[in-house]
Every structure is written in structure tokens, then in C-alpha cells.
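If your schedule permits, I should be very grateful for your opinion on a structural question. I have a record of one protein: its chain in single-letter code and its fold written as C-alpha cells. Would you kindly read the sequence against the C-alpha cells and tell me how you understand this chain to fold? Thank you for your consideration; the sequence and its C-alpha cells are set out here.


***
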Amino acid sequence: MGTVRGLLAFGLITLGVLVTKSAVARPLMRPLMRRHLYRAGVRLLPMALFLAMALGFVVIGQSVVLLSRVGAQDFAGTIMVSVVVRELGPLAAALLILLRVGTATVIELGTARALGEVEVLESLSIDPIHYLVAPRMAGMILGAFTLSIYLIVAALACGYVFAFLQDVPLTPSDYLAQLAGALQALDFVLVGIKALLFGVLIAVTTCYQGLARPLSLEDVSQATVRATVHGLLGIVALDVLFMVVFLAS
């Protein structure tokens, strides 16, 4: 509970800084935000494509093949929407950002705190939250959203390619029609909100563990482990919450 309170307080402080200082030092902040968006988004596209191929070939392709064997390939679209669009796509993108970008964020901020760089920024009247946290948070939030969409589309496409190679009697038009019939307006809303909240959760957790606590260099590795564990637990809990909300609706 103490960690949850600390995360909430840190998140509210960061939100306040983002609102009150959105127009401060824009020529400096915009390049930083673009750099962190590149790191949390564009740079992860090859890894996201690999995960999409794995999901498509292993999960979707196998499901379509099994359904075709029992003559139930008409349900392929429903299964793919339920498994990939609603669950595995945003979840895989969030885990990728947490393990690839989140851990690096803890190390960077923890090292800066341990070496006294945060105090130097404060002595220069530079808000460390605005300079160090805001660009990273923007990059991880937008990266989680865009990577989720990219990964979902690529996984659905790779799944059909695998099914086609297995001679499954399913035409592209039928496949797209099943996906369109299984998708609901609520799916687009929930997937977007889920991806954005995953990004917020990862950003707040990693930045809090790296920056909000006084650290020595020896404590950076422990802070990285804590951030990874707390991020994984938060992602799973948030995913379960969305599942309950969707089933209830």
C-alpha cells in the first residue's frame, strides 16, 4: 500500500507539472519528446513485428487450423478478436515497453539521482520532473498506444498467412468479414484506453523507482527489479480489470 500511495502521489505530481508547464521551454522539450518517442515506439517496431509473427503463427494460425478440422472456421474471427485484439496485442506491447524501455529508464534516472544530477538541475531552477520525467512519460504512453495497434494488425495478418500456408479453406474476404463482424465499437474504445493506461502505468512506475527515491549506485539494480515486478503486477491487474469491465458490459 505504501508503494501504491507513492505511485499515485508521483503520478499526480507529474500530471500537475505536465499541465502547468506545457508551454515552458518548448524548443528544449520537443526534441527530448521526439527522442523518447523514437526509443519507445519506432525503435521497437522490429521487435514488435517479431512478436506479431510469433502470435500470428503460433496462436492464431493454430486456432484457425484446429477450427477448420472440425468445420468451425466461421468462428475464427471471433476467436482472433477475443484473443489478439482484446488481450494479447496490448499486453505484448506493454510488456515489450516495460522490459526494453522501462528498465533503461530506471537505470538512467537512478544513476542521475545517485550522481547528484537531480540536485544540479534543481540548483539551476530546472524542474527535474519536467525535464527528466515528462519526455519519457510522453514517449512511453504514445509508444504503448501505437505499438499496440501495429502489433495487432501485424499479428492478424501473419495469422492468416500461416492459415493460408496450411491450406485452410478461408478466403481473405471471409476472414476480413469475420473480423469485422466480431469487432464491436467497444473493442476500439477499450483497446485504446487499455494501451494508454498501460503506458501511463509503466511510465509512472519506472520513473518513480528511478527518481523519487534517494539512491546510491548500488541501489540502482534493486530499483530496476522493483520497477519490473511492480510494472508486471500492475499490468496484469489492469488487464484483469478491463476483462471484468468488458464481460460486465
In short: The chain has a mean pLDDT of 84. The first helix runs from residue 2 to 20. Residues 27-248 form one domain. Residues 20 and 130 are 10 Å apart (CA to CA).
